[in-house]
Write a structure and sequence with these properties.
homotetramer, elongated, DNA-binding, transcription (chains A, B, C, D)
DNA sequence: GATGAATGAGAGTTCATTCAT
DNA sequence: TATGAATGAACTCTCATTCAT
């Protein structure tokens, strides 16, 4: 009688599961481009409907609200980010060089995907009102800072104190997010590309020089 | 003369000018606290009405739209910020120490005024859809980076190249804004207060150590 | 497909088309009575909502604005009017008698539908600010004058010049609309019903008597 | 103590009376042009304020509401009209010719003062919701029809019945107002100027030809 | 008398969400 | 499952009117 209120896992063979995640991905893709273009508050559900090629009802079948779409979007973006972070330390080699490389990678990805920074800023500011989003960012931040700490410790060659390592890691994390923020918001004719890796190098050198 | 829309500048003696700016300040103060608490999109004009103690009509007498309030708010905040920046270089002394001091000041002000970072993040993200706001941030950024460059040049004792100086200044600016962003968004039980000044010191040391 | 705004024409079988025009008719009927009663500017969307038995959202699903409702109302009223005009000349017989009959019909319809003249006046005056409405009236007027010219030519038995025919047709059209206007606006205790047909007869006689 | 609620006649010497009517005229002039341009509902009190060169308070000192301005405007326009009508019959001569002349005068005045017809239509439609305006139009109409009846009686040379005279007069009045209405609303490339006088001539001829 | 800042009820419109089919 | 028509609370902004000065 009653119609269930979301995607059914009951009696779900693999077909169902596949469709389910395909649909959700379809919706999240649409939301990604729409949010990046119009911002969360500037986007109407109808925009997502149109961009996804699905119907309004379908959207609400797979997500219970606009907010839930944003939350899931953040979860997925940060999950992917953590995945690629997880691959990082596996690669051996000079820690300082790896930090610089990570910075350059990040810098390049901002340039290659121009909607990334704007979207991130949009979602970041959403975090202030949506606890689930805030939690995801906080969790990711923790992981990220831990990784940076490890790399900084290795890169500083034992010259820096634990407190300095922590300060450096927090500063690096802030620098990276701040860089993205400026990328999204500041229009510079000259452009400030490619300086991030260099800055990381300088900071590492500073840590190393501590007596 | 005719009363068209908004406060009259015609025949304005000092009384009028005083009332005008008092009213605008009253409204901007209200908007500041409301935006900080609820966010721009979460704030209704009625919230500002209530917080200001004025009537709806009065708000629209002094500002033509909600957006204009936000723009003026940003303009004023950044104007004040530039003013206090302008006082900085006047003080002589060690440039490196001054940079650290600025960082600590900033860090402390975030702590003492807990709504500052959230409000900033909110307004920052507005900049993506409101060109006038974006322009204000861009202009401020330019000034800020120029100041940081001067200080870094002095602090590095000639050891760093122009390019390194620039990268460092951009990195510092990013670090500061990113720090505020994390302050607004990341809930850490331990807290990461007071690390900013230290991080700046490390970065300066790094610049100095460049051969 | 996407649900953007307004009823879908995509995949519309007859059911859909039927519902669509039923709903629009429902809204236009409501608007007709509300506009007649309160005038366009005196009517609130909520009045139409209430009169239609639909919700506010439904109204805006079928019409994008209050103005569009008025435009469509005019379009439909004049379309119907043209339809009944089109039937006129088909009937043979004495042209003069037919003109008088048309006048009497018009006169009677004003009496039988007391809200017709007030509504017409309301919409007429809207035409001054809404170009689409003005266009509809202009087009209708052209058709109407052409028909009157044909009838007058036939009725005058060749006695009148082309210029006189045209002047007479314009005068007749003006007389008819002016009659409605007075019906809507002038409160005469005696009433001036039934004089229109007679007046038309006099004018025709005048045309015939031209040497 | 208490401030009176309108222009004072107390202690009024002629100076006061003169100022009073000058001010009211100033306001009515402004309202005339503003209403003609924007329509009654499209005009804001601020528009009248601006056009009059007075202050908002002054407007409300001389008129108690926007509606009262419209009412007084109609009263004055129709009063002037009646005045010039009153001069008409004084001039002797052929009644038919005089009717045609009146029509031509009217036609010319519409052409020379292009805002007249639009303004009239606007005020006419206001009459439907503002009883005082309706009353003014009704009274004027009565006077006008009486005059037309007199002229038609004289012009018809006794050939027409009282009923025919009355129908003719009502028809003429309708024709004239309808003509103005079309002037305001219908955009014809060819233009239909100068046909009104001719049409009146035809109608008179028709009355004369009645046996 | 005159000014224009201030009021606040209410207008048209939007849009996240629901639900009959 | 899927659709898109329907809902209605809530929004920003307007503007006739008032009143302290």
């Amino acid at each position: 009688m009653g119609t269930a209120r979301g995607p059914q896992t009951t009696g779900s063979d693999e077909r169902n599961a596949a469709r389910l995640s395909a649909r959700r991905a379809q919706i999240l893709d649409a939301a990604t481009s729409v949010f990046a273009r119009l911002g969360y508050h500037g986007s109407r559900m109808d925009d997502i409907v149109q961009a996804s090629g699905l119907s309004k009802g379908a959207i609400y079948w797979y997500f219970k609200s606009k907010e839930e779409i944003a939350v899931e979007l953040v979860r997925q973006l940060l999950h992917d980010e953590e995945q690629s972070l997880a691959g990082e330390p596996a690669a051996g080699g000079d820690a300082g060089a790896r930090l610089s490389a990570m910075a350059d990678d990040f810098s390049r990805s901002l340039r290659e995907n121009p909607s990334r920074a704007p979207l991130a800023l949009e979602l970041l500011s959403l975090g202030q009102r949506i606890p689930a989003i805030k939690k995801h960012f906080t969790d990711y931040h923790e992981t990220y800072v831990a990784l940076l700490s490890d790399l900084l410790r290795a890169a500083s060659g034992g010259a820096a104190s634990t407190q300095q390592i922590r300060a450096g890691a927090l500063a690096l994390a802030a620098m990276v997010d701040g860089w993205a923020l400026h990328e999204a918001l500041i229009t510079t004719p000259s452009g400030h590309r490619d300086g991030l890796g260099e800055a990381v190098g300088i900071l590492v050198a500073g840590l190393r020089s501590q007596v």
